[in-house]
Fold each of these.
Amino acid sequence: MSHAITPSGSGLNRVPRVTADFWLIKLMAVTMGETAADYLAVNLGLGLTTTSLLMAAVLVAVMALQLAQKRYVPWTYWSAVVLVSVVGTLITDNLVDNFGVALQTTAIVFSVMLAATFVWWYRSEGTLSIHAVTTNRREAFYWLAILLTFALGTAVGDLVAEVFGLGYLTTGVIFGAIIAAIAGAYYALRLDGILTFWLVYILTRPLGASFGDLLSQPTEYGGMGLGTIYTSLVFLAVIVATVSYMSFTYRPEVVQAEHVS
């Protein structure tokens, strides 16, 4: 089977351009994913299993709506991201809390699964480009990778903050510094753009979750005690405002679709 890439006409990209507001809303989404999962499972008393089943059902419905668009629509796309963030967090929490899987093990397993997804994606499409997600198959690979980055980021963040005992603030600073170093390598050393994107995408999960926990968790656990509901509402407000701005300013991005023959 040949993996030569050839143009096959134009199409609408189904995911957004990577801009400053992209990273802002992504960081808000992952932070809200952490606090919203805690609020539903703990504060509302739904429990981890019920919360997981409920959020998975909502995600399936929203993802069906997203996949039906065949183009990038800000509110459906970012609704899907928020829900994937919540479900990705719950997957890791279930493995650790309900099944007793060590965080070290979950981090390794999700790293392998994410790497396998990228290999499968590349062998199937001949590219990992996020600038030409113009087919159902590419979008399916994209969302699978996104889900695994959230699950992996949750495991890595909890591992550093809790198992290594560094706390929420120190963990957030560490991951923020790593992201800054990667960004510096991209601009100064011309690090590959696709590699840079996925590395930063993974690392913004523990960054956002660490600061979400810092704000929401009780002071006796190293947090600021603001609570999950208020923290979640603040970040939801930022998300809604940013998505509204995106919706008013968005213009469809037509790209040359790539085809593997």
Amino acid sequence: MAAKKTMDGTKAAGKVPGARTGPAEPGELAVRPGEEPWSPGEVAEARTELQSEVLRLRAEITHSEEAITGLMRDSGDGAGDDQADTGTKNITREHELALAANAREMLDQTERALERLDAGTYGLCENCGKPIGKARMQAFPRATLCVECKQRQERR
């Protein structure tokens, strides 16, 4: 979706119809039929958990990047290493790269969850628009799909 220009000439990101522009109020977040609305404490707990996860992931990414830098510096030309040493270094470097990529993906998901919490769309399935379920959101705060849509996605 292309960004639209606002009255002052700046670009505005595409907005979700009916989405809030400020932090969501407790009780406004989506819940499935029969579930209790989100209480102020539950919203605060979800936000705190997501924010602490962002800090943890950023620290993990920094640590991985430092480890990768060290491994790249030590890799040299392999002179004096036997094949096993070279292979071990390559596997370790690939492992650190995979960990860093995974942490970056989780950080993106966590930051998106915080954005959805602020927009009031937290707990809505990004595929079908139905409520994901409060219990699922509390168990997996980065969830973007309801159980039915997630199952369909995994079958593909």
